[in-house]
Amino acid sequence: MSASTTSYLVAPVILCGGSGARLWPLSRSGFPKQFLVLSGDDSNQSLFQQAITRINAIGNAQIDLGETLIVTNEDHRFLALDQLRELKNVKATLLLEPIGRNTAPALSLAALHALDQSQIEGYDPILVITPADQTVQNQAAFVKALQDCVAIVAEDQSKRTIAILGVTPTTPETGYGYIKRNSTRGKNNEFAVAQFVEKPDVKTAKAYLADGNYLWNSGMFVLRASTWLAALAQHRSDIESTTKAAWGIKTIDQSGEVNFVRPDKKLFTAVPSESIDYAVIEKCATSTFSIKMVELDAGWSDLGAWDAVWQVGKQDAEGNVTFGDAILTNTKNSLVHASSRLVSVIGIENLIIVETADAVLVVDKKNSQDVKSIVNKLEQQKREEKNLHRKVARPWGWYDSIDQGDRFKVKRIQVSPGASLSLQMHHHRAEHWVVVKGIAEVMNGDDVITLVENQSTYIPQGQTHRLTNPGKTPLEIIEVQSGSYLGEDDIVRFEDTYGRS
Prior knowledge:
Number of domains: 3
Radius of gyration: 25 Å
Oligomer: single chain
CATH superfamily of the largest domain: Spore Coat Polysaccharide Biosynthesis Protein SpsA, Chain A
Strand order of the largest sheet: 21-22-23-30-25-28
Shape: globular
Number of helices: 11
Largest sheet: 6 strands, antiparallel
CATH architecture of the largest domain: Alpha-Beta Complex
C-alpha cells in the first residue's frame, strides 16, 4: 500500500450467481455450489461465507470498508440471508436479480447502489468484486493482493484504472481464460495487461505455463463504481442503459436488519446477458481505460468441477479425499462424498463418487468436466433432480420428501420458531399432518387449532390452510399427501410472509 494516510472508501461486492452444474448432484439450481461446504478446511463455512469473510478481511487504516453488497437471484435470497446471519459483524445488502443476466448487469446493480448510498458530495466508492464460489488457501496473500489493487485504483485521479487479480498457474489448465502481462512490476506490485486470451487447448496451455507471463483470470476486480459505469457506457451502452432503467424503478424491503433491493422485473428481463470480461474488461485493454494486474499466488481454485474439489481437499496417504460416512479399501486418488448413508468402495483409482439422498454420481476424475451433460439430460427429461434435493430449504425452514408412491407422498417438515407457511390451498391433493415435535398452530378453513406432539389433523382437498410455529423451538410434522397430482406447483398462495403470493 502507499505510505499516504488517506482513507479509501471501499465496498465489498459478492457476485452470488450461477448454478454450479458440474458439481451435480450436490450442487443444484435450487441450492447451488456457493452455498455448499466444499473446500475441505476446518471452518465449516460455505463458499459464500468464505468469500464474505475473506473480502471483509482487507480493511486496514487506509481501507474503510462499507457494507457488503451481495448480488444474487431472487430465488436464493433466503439461502443467502440465513448463511449471512451466521457470520458476525457483517453488514450487508442483498441486491436481488429477478432473472439471471450474467455478471456485467450484476456488477452494474452493485455500482448503482453504491453511488446511491452517497451522503458525501463526490463520493465514489472503490468496489472490490469477487465471485461467491471460489476457495483460497492462503488468506494473508489474498488480502495483500487485494490491498495492492485498492491502492492502484485509489491513486489514479483520472478514475480510469481497473485492477484485476491474475492467478499464478500451477498446471496447463484448459478450463480458464488467461491474462498476458508485461514484465515491468510497478510500486504496488502491478503489471500492465498486454492481452486477454480465451480458454486454450492443451498444447497452448503448456506453452503459456512455460512462458511465465500468462496467468489465470480469477474473475476478481477492483475499480471505482463510476469507472465501471463509464466503461460499460462506452463498450456496452445497451447493458448500461437497460440496467439503469430497471434500477430506476427499484423496490426496497427488509428482513431484520438486511435490506432486499429489487430492480424492476419487467425492465431487468430486457437487460442483455453478458459477462464482465466480454462486456468490458477484455475491451479495456485497447481503450482509454487502463487495466493493471496483481499476481495472486494463494492456492486459489474456482472449484469448477469435482476434480478441483479433490485437488483442494485433504488427501490421505493414498491420495483420497472423503466427506461424510465413507469406507475405502485398496483405493487411490479418488474422491468419495457421502451425504446421507454409508458409502464403501473397494479397488478403484481416479474416480469421483458423490452420493445424495436421491442421486449417485460415479465419474472418472479426468471426465469430471462432463458432469454438465448429465444435468442437460435431466433438464431434457424434466426431472426434478436437476433443480432440487430431496431435502429442500424454504424461508420458513425445510421439507424432506421421504417417500412417494402412486397417489401419495410423505414429507418430513420442519418450521423455524415464529415462522409460518403461506396461507394456501391445493386443487388436487388432501393432506394429513402429525406433529412429532414442538407446537403447531393450524388454520384449517375457518377453524384455528393448536396441536402438540402425537396430535394430528386433516386438510381436505381445496381447503384454505396455514401452518405456523408459535413456539420457541423448531416444529416438526409428518405430512402425508394423497391425491391425483402431487407436484410442488399445485399450490395457490393467498398470503405469504416471504413475498411469494
